[in-house]
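User: quick one, fold this
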Amino acid sequence: MLNKKPRWLTQKIRSGATSRNVKSLIKDLHLNTVCSEAKCPNSGECFSNGTATFLILGNRCTRNCGFCAIGHDVPHSPDPTEPSRIAEAVSILELNHVVITSVTRDDLPDGGAGNFAAVINAIRARMPRTTVEILVPDFQGDSSSIKTIVSARPEVINHNIETVPRLYEYARPGSDYRRSLELLGTVCRTGPGIETKSGLMLGLGEQPDEIRAVLSDLKDAGCSMITIGQYLQPSKKHLPVSRFVTPGEFESWRREALELGFRGAESGPFVRSSYKAGELLGAVKRFEQQ
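Assistant:
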């Protein structure tokens, strides 16, 4: 077990008026963010920049992945007022790009797909120029749920592959590598014009050849964007970190992803799937216009 983080994993704590305003708004509107629930290391930076990644369908997950800080418990029923409250927050923050994610809700018939669609529609009605990115669970591979998501026409549909197939049983019980790839492939086949994105964590015990195979599989599935970041253990109860990947190696993976054909790639110790998501989408759009 690694007990001491290397120097490149130290960050300055960011705060200030903007950060306090974002936290106050989230509290006043009774919203959840993945920034806080998942103990994201970038939450201070994002709050200070006046943005956040909204977490819908509560803060209790029906799965219990060994790497994730979000609580595992019996979830509450979905709140029908949540879409309008999120749209209000997006309006107040004047967001040009917003990321919406959720806990996994295997207890719901559609896995929460209809709730995602309702949030997208509420944002569209209030902030029609805001681009919307959604980070979705696998919906247990249900095709009708995936169709609901595609029909809502967000600009980006993200589904994180998280790790290499060998480590799925260890890190992602209840999930299936091929099912996740098929979800991404279905989005690409049925949602022309929607950017498809995925994310990968390093530091769980994966090998270089396994990483390359995952990147190749994601590209073959049609993904246009990839994020690669360092796994950090949220608590002693979670899976241990097998190694800390150097910034130089992360940069090598970024270059390799672009050489493989991804139109956008971010890779670094603090990169997360929603980190600087608007900038990455903008870079992809500029690439496509060349």
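User: anything notable?
Assistant: The first strand starts at residue 32 and ends at 33.
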